């Protein structure tokens, strides 16, 4: 065996060992993550008391209750009862077990199947305090509270109180909920009287446990999971977020003003109502089930500042509602930032959405009920907005078309010498009075609008379940054919608006083929390849978005045909260019300095060549 073979076998051995070590590390990490998830799930799983010592009497053993529930032993057992708070837009069912919301229905919305939209539903959802009792943690969600009757104020506000006594009636933990006649905001107050005696002497925070489970509400589970996020804002109003699919655990040691679990079109948010008493810290664990109708789960622990006062109150607000920009903005806490109107390198387009697109959209929707027509009018408005620049762009294209024969001659003259061609090309443009960048301005102006629309339409709740033509829901893809198989990079359905958008993009590219550099294969064929490459991306996106892009393409094609056929006179442009060539070309100071530098360089190179 020669030396090369030995080296080859050694390298293969090293790669094999490396793969085994890496695989074991991945498996260890996965096992640790599973153990952590199981531990969290067990900690937050509803507890049911089981008496094994006194089956004959049917009554729980008092010693066992005291050992497990401590001073809350009297609340370990009971009968579950429900009370409802309801207004025009939301219906919340509360249970005395845990003194917490059991289900939340948004009355103005339906899920994708046409049933009631339940934002909270199922035993997984919990809102409780974690209390240290006899060397272990007890969740108030496992205790039976005493519920009051609903109190109604003169303004229609409904209030519900749940009380959990400690050792006597004068020492208790109380949850107070109030709901106004119209709105998605619930005022939630944690009220503790005499609780400092039942807690360790060094405890200066209370842990609020909030478990949230999101069920599928829309047609596309994959898209919902991409939009299932946790958003948060600290006391300096700095907003950030993470996606459940990408992050399984996040710990915040900074003080938070609010924390929100966001779905595609809805969210549940906990807000520290007192600005001077924010949440001290937070710990969020997430889980995305591999199957079923559950989009994602969050296990959140919020630390509440506790001053150990005999009579302690901590106000919290809970928002159960839609991701509607105007509604969220009305709270004036930056909650509207959870709506993705522009992020990453295109973060600045959110201002286009906030200052132009959303106000125009809201104005049109104020007197037009058909959102397809609103999109048409919005598209026309945007095109009118940039019409002067678009006209200048077409004039510039016409000038370039007139100069094309001369440019072709220059290419033949210089061949592969791109530098010489570029210099003569600039001289030609200068003598003809043509700005080669004249056609770029409208494209630059349209870019932020195109990107803004890419963010706006998929996140606009106004389009949700609104139909137009064959599209049953403008907030999701308009499938005209569901395929029994998956096509890589495309999907398992056919979106007609996406096909129309791609077709008109190709027509537009063909119409402008004379403007591209025919000598460069990339520039020549990219306008045709790019729309086809994007076909798979847009096939899953909102029908409202692809309809807008399709309509914008149609308007562009129509405008080009009308302007270049009836408005722009190529003969006049050619004559004007020829006149411009006869005029003396004035040099700018920058050009004069550049020429001086070139002469100096040539002068320095001359003596060197002689040597």
TrEMBL record:
The keyword Protein transport applies. Residues 589-599 have a biased composition (Basic and acidic residues). GO terms for biological process: protein insertion into membrane; protein transport. Its main location: membrane. Residues 371-564 form the Membrane insertase YidC/Oxa/ALB C-terminal domain. Residues 83-348 form the Membrane insertase YidC N-terminal domain. Residues 579-611 are annotated as: Disordered. GO terms for molecular function: membrane insertase activity. One of its GO terms (cellular component) is plasma membrane. Keywords: Cell membrane, Chaperone, Membrane, Protein transport, Transmembrane, Transmembrane helix, Transport. It is found in: Cell inner membrane; Cell membrane. Pfam families: 60KD_IMP, YidC_periplas. The chain crosses the membrane at residues 6-22, 333-351, 371-391, 433-457, 489-510, 522-541. It is a multi-pass membrane protein. HAMAP family: YidC_type1. Interacts with the Sec translocase complex via SecD. Specifically interacts with transmembrane segments of nascent integral membrane proteins during membrane integration. Required for the insertion and/or proper folding and/or complex formation of integral membrane proteins into the membrane. Involved in integration of membrane proteins that insert both dependently and independently of the Sec translocase complex, as well as at least some lipoproteins. Aids folding of multispanning membrane proteins. Belongs to the OXA1/ALB3/YidC family. Type 1 subfamily. PANTHER family: CYTOCHROME C OXIDASE ASSEMBLY PROTEIN COX18, MITOCHONDRIAL, OXA1. This is Membrane protein insertase YidC.
């Amino acid at each position: 065996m020669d030396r090369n073979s030995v080296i080859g076998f050694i390298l293969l051995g090293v790669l094999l060992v490396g793969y085994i070590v890496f695989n074991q590390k991945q498996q260890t990490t996965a096992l640790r993550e599973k153990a952590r998830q199981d531990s969290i799930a067990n900690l937050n799983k509803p507890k049911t008391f089981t008496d094994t010592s006194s089956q004959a009497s049917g009554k729980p053993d008092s010693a066992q209750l005291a050992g497990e529930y401590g001073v809350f032993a009297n609340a370990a057992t009971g009968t579950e009862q429900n009370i409802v708070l309801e207004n025009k837009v939301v219906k919340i069912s509360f249970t005395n077990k845990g003194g917490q919301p059991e289900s939340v229905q948004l009355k103005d919305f339906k899920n994708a199947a046409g049933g009631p939209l339940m934002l909270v539903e199922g035993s997984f959802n919990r809102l409780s305090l974690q209390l240290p009792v006899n060397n272990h943690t007890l969740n108030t969600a496992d205790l039976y509270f005493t519920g009051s009757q609903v109190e109604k104020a003169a303004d229609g506000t409904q209030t519900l109180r749940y009380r959990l006594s400690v050792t006597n009636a004068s020492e208790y933990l109380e949850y107070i909920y109030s709901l106004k006649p119209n709105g998605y905001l619930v005022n939630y107050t944690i009220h503790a009287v005499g609780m400092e005696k039942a807690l360790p002497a060094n405890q200066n925070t209370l842990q609020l446990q909030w478990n949230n489970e999101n069920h599928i509400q829309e047609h596309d589970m994959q898209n919902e999971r991409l939009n299932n996020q946790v958003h948060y804002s600290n006391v300096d109003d700095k907003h950030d977020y993470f996606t459940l699919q990408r992050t399984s655990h996040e710990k915040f040691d900074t003080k938070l003003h609010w924390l929100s679990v966001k779905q595609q079109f809805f969210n549940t948010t906990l807000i520290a109502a007192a600005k001077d008493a924010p949440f001290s810290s937070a710990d969020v664990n997430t889980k995305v089930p591999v199957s079923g109708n559950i989009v994602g789960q969050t296990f959140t622990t919020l630390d509440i500042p506790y001053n150990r006062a005999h009579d302690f109150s901590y106000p919290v607000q809970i928002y159960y509602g839609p991701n509607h920009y105007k509604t969220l903005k009305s709270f004036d806490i930056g909650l509207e930032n959870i709506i993705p109107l522009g992020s990453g390198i295109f973060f600045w387009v959110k201002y286009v959405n906030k200052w132009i697109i959303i106000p125009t959209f809201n104005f049109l929707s104020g007197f037009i009920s058909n959102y397809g027509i609103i999109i048409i009018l919005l598209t026309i408005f945007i095109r009118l907005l940039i019409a002067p620049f678009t006209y200048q762009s077409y004039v510039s294209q016409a000038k370039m078309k007139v100069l094309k024969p001369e440019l072709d001659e220059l290419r033949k003259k210089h061949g592969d010498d791109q530098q010489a061609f570029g210099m003569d090309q600039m001289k030609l443009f200068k003598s003809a009075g043509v700005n080669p960048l004249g056609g770029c301005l409208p494209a630059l102006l349209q870019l932020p609008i195109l990107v803004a629309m890419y963010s706006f339409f998929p996140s606009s709740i106004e389009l949700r379940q609104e139909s137009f033509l064959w599209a049953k829901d403008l907030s999701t893809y308009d499938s005209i054919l569901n395929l029994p198989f998956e096509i890589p990079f495309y999907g398992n359905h056919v979106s007609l608006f996406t096909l129309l958008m791609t077709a008109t993009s190709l027509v537009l590219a063909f119409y402008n083929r004379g403007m591209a550099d025919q000598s460069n294969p990339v520039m020549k064929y990219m306008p045709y390849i790019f729309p086809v490459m994007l076909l798979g991306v847009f096939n899953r996106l909102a029908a409202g978005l692809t309809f807008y892009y399709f309509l914008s393409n149609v308007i562009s094609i129509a405008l080009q045909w009308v302007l270049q056929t009836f408005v722009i006179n190529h003969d006049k442009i050619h004559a004007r260019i020829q006149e411009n060539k006869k005029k003396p070309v004035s040099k700018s100071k920058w050009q004069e300095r550049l020429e001086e530098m070139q002469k100096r360089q040539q002068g320095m190179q001359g003596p060197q060549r002689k040597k």
